[in-house]
Design a protein that fits this description.
CATH class of the largest domain: Alpha Beta
Number of helices: 17
CATH topology of the largest domain: Rossmann fold
Largest sheet: 6 strands, parallel
Strand content: 15-25%
Structural class: alpha/beta
Number of domains: 3
CATH architecture of the largest domain: 3-Layer(aba) Sandwich
Radius of gyration: 22 Å
Number of strands: 14
Distance between the termini: 39 Å
Bound molecules: iron/sulfur cluster
CATH superfamily of the largest domain: Nitrogenase molybdenum iron protein domain
Strand order of the largest sheet: 1-12-11-10-13-14
Shape: globular
């Protein structure tokens, strides 16, 4: 394991708003930030001018930075105007940024104050999406961790229930719900929920499965409320999905025969769909730059199910307890790196000349210009990739850039 600390090339946590605003459909994300923050969100989410977006930026300008304006009074005014214009909003997240942190604007107090004014119709919460010492998926972790304290308490007589934690595309969520029912687990809830009005109750009878590997703070908050994590690999690929579902089946006392009967047809179909991509990808060498925190589960999937060779697997942070099952499945001797010193890592990557490099947007074009084939890691967050039905789509995300380059070279 190589640990590096130096210059990093990552997006900030504001990026999570792009998938979270689609998920909690009556929530609104108000970034308290600069024009740069507004530009990032606006261009990354590609909002049409006539749409009613569920995010915006309250811009901190020079007067605020110079301490000439009362930021709290301005924020109260912006929020009041927003909520008056958008009566559909049930939950408002004030999202902190680098500038709001630099001027030490206390958004947790602002959220409390505004909640007191607008409850019960609108609840106001806050979290930080700042790019100081974070990577972009931590925005989701911070958002979900902010939700945990307001989740209702499960009743004293509650039977064991399952909570799936981590934003999943609705199509994936529906598939998992069907599979859990087929296995024999009916009481399944999801965090984040689709509506701010459907917050799942939690407590000591809650067993939770992480659907994403970057939710350390959320997990800690859930455990403080008495919930218990079911240790499992993440639901990427046939193998990961099977083990993830199986962890729940075991915790709920479902027999192995019932489990296998329920999942076998889906496994079969998914393996068939993967075969085509395996032919294209087997033996290809892949290098992961640290970016999304999905790198280790992805490396496990591409090496074991697609036959790719791992050159280096970088991750911004390594949460060993949450990734223990994944680490155990990596090929012996896999080169892992945690953190980043981007120049050194670029040197290693260029020297290794991998067939495929998974990296952030900022590195992709320069690497393509040097003749490497790249895959944007952020795409793996925007695309439904979890579960059996998506295993081939996930493989295709790796195959497509190679096919494109081969076509360009003909
Ligand atoms: S939060 Fe920080 S890193 Fe992110 S866009 Fe705003 S200024 Fe840039």
């Amino acid at each position: 394991m190589l640990r590096e600390r130096g210059q990093r090339e990552v997006f900030c946590g504001l990026t999570g708003i792009i998938w979270l605003h689609r998920k909690i459909q009556d929530a609104f994300f108000l970034v308290v930030g600069s024009r740069t923050c507004a530009h990032l969100i606006q261009s990354a989410a590609g909002v049409m001018i006539f749409a009613e977006p569920r995010f915006a930026t309250a811009i901190i300008d020079e007067r605020d930075l110079a301490g000439l304006a009362d930021c709290n009074a301005e924020l109260d005014r912006v929020v009041a105007r927003l909520l008056e214009r958008r009566p559909d909003i049930r939950m408002l997240f004030l999202v902190g940024s680098c500038p709001s942190e630099v001027i030490k604007l206390d958004l947790s107090r602002a959220a409390e104050r505004l909640s007191a004014s607008f409850m019960p119709k609108v609840r106001v919460l806050n979290y930080s999406g700042s790019g100081i010492e974070t990577t972009f998926t931590q925005g989701e972790d911070a958002c979900l961790a902010a939700l945990v304290p307001i989740l209702p308490v499960e009743s004293a007589s509650a039977k064991q229930s399952l909570l799936v934690v981590g934003a999943l595309a609705e199509v994936v969520e529906d598939q998992f719900r069907r599979l859990f029912t087929a296995i024999g687990i009916d009481d399944v809830r999801f965090l984040p929920p689709r509506s701010a009005m459907q917050l799942p109750a939690i407590g000591p009878a809650t067993r939770y499965l992480l659907a994403q590997p970057f939710l350390a703070d959320t997990a800690r908050a859930l455990e403080a409320r008495g919930a218990t994590r079911l240790a499992a690999p993440f639901p990427l690929g046939v193998e990961g999905t099977t083990a993830w579902l199986h962890a729940a089946a075991q915790a709920f006392g479902i027999s192995d025969s019932r489990f296998h009967t329920a999942v076998a047809p889906e496994q079969e179909r998914a393996r068939g769909a993967l075969a085509r991509h395996r032919e294209q990808l087997a033996g290809r060498r892949i290098f992961f730059f640290p970016d999304s925190q999905l790198e280790i589960p992805l490396a496990r999937f591409v090496s074991r199910e697609l036959g790719m060779e791992l050159v280096e697997v970088g991750t911004p942070y390594l949460h060993r307890p949450h990734l223990a099952e994944e680490l155990a499945m990596l090929p012996a001797g896999t080169m892992l790196s945690e953190g980043q010193d981007v120049e050194r890592q670029l040197d290693r990557c260029l020297a290794a000349a991998p067939d495929m490099t998974v990296c952030g947007l900022g590195l992709a074009n320069p690497l393509e210009a040097k003749g490497l084939t790249t895959k944007w890691s952020i795409e793996l967050l925007f695309t439904p990739v979890q579960g059996f039905n998506q295993a081939a789509d996930l493989a295709e995300l790796f195959a497509r850039p190679l096919v494109r380059r081969a076509r360009l070279m003909v």
